[in-house]
Amino acid sequence: MRDVTGPLVSADTVAANLDQIRTTDSDYRLLEVNVQQGTYESSHIPGAVSLDWQTDLHDTRTFDVLSPAALSTLLGDRGVTRETTIILYGDFFNWFAAHAYWLLRYYRHEKLLLLDGGRKYWLENEFPTTDAVPAVPNCEYQAPEPDESIRSRRGEVEAAVESGGCLIDARAPPEYRGDILAPPGWNEGVQRGGHIPGAVNKPCRDTIQADRRFRSREELAALFENYSPEDQIIVYCRVGERSALVWTALAEILGYENVSYYYGSFVEWGNTVGLPVESVTSADLR
User: Fold this and answer.
1) Cβ(116)–Cβ(213) under 8 Å?
2) How confident is the model at residue 60 (pLDDT cuts 50, 70, 90)?
3) Rounded CA gap, 270 and 195, in Å?
4) H or E stretch including 163?
């Protein structure tokens, strides 16, 4: 698969190179990232291996990112080496695949692609699928120490609030306003409605088209025209998956150099005693 540069790879390109990508050697590995049980088992791209966002991509005791050792085991068991080109895709507008993309960037994996449009785009355009689970070899994977420059912790967010720094809230407007605590049908996980003081609402849905593919680079540049590529920007949402989509748009597609991802997001902020929360009416939205 030649002349493909990140972060995005089209469904047409993956389909045209599927015989090469789906082999069991470690040059390429398709990873489907889902949150709903049974999605992968029902159908997936031939050669794809499953990752469960809830059980595989977090420390289930602390809900923090995986340790280097845990990530090394996870990827090695799925036939990935440090030299593997990983192609990620998933359901729910690629939210969870984007989270996995950020996590792998955090651990400095270089050969990384996100299938533009995700699982739904692949299915709607009738690209090939299967329910066969591939047998991939166990590989040696050694995760290095993470790149902390792309992660913000609570103290850094507090400092940004105090200094008037750039905070972007990637949730839907009703969540940002404080009308609801989570998207309908999802477990809230947070006790207070509203947003981090000073944050500007840029819903992740604004970064993608109706078919779930990212908007053009020009459209994304217009969406974030009030920000400079040199600005220190922190993005967050409720539990981190939607802000990963905005982080990808800013850091990987537009090339903004100082964008970090608040992993704790509003679940941490909104549940922490003493931290300020703002709520607004529709008329107050910027």
Assistant:
1) yes
2) confident
3) 8
4) helix 154-163
CB atoms within 10 A of CB 73: 15
Cβ atoms of 106 and 65 within 8 Å: the answer is: yes
pTM of the complete model:
0.94
Half-sphere exposure of 5 (CA within 13 A, CB side): 2
DSSP helix/strand/coil, 257: coil
Structure confidence at residue 284 (pLDDT): 45
Helix (H, G, I), strand (E, B) or coil at 87: strand
Which of 98, 51, 58 has its CA nearest to residue 77?
51
One-letter identity of residue 145: E
Edge to edge, the sheet with strand 49-52 lists 8-9, 112-115, 85-90, 28-34, 49-52
User: Is residue 224 within 8 Å of 250, Cβ to Cβ?
Assistant: yes
- Two structure tokens written together for 12: 């047409």
Q: How do beta strands 166-169 and 200-201 pair?
A: parallel
| Bridge partners of residue 28, in order along the sequence | 85
Residues in Cβ contact with 48 at an 8 Å cutoff, skipping those fewer than 6 apart: 30, 31, 32, 40, 89, 134
Span 162-221, pLDDT tens digits: 999 999 999 999 999 999 999 888 887 888 999 999 999 999 999 999 999 999 999 999
Q: Where are the beta strands (DSSP E) in the chain?
A: 8-9, 28-34, 49-52, 85-90, 112-115, 151-152, 166-169, 200-201, 233-236, 259-262
Tokens at 88, concatenated? 């990620």
Residues tagged active-site: 237
Percent of the chain residues past pLDDT 70, beyond the cut:
96
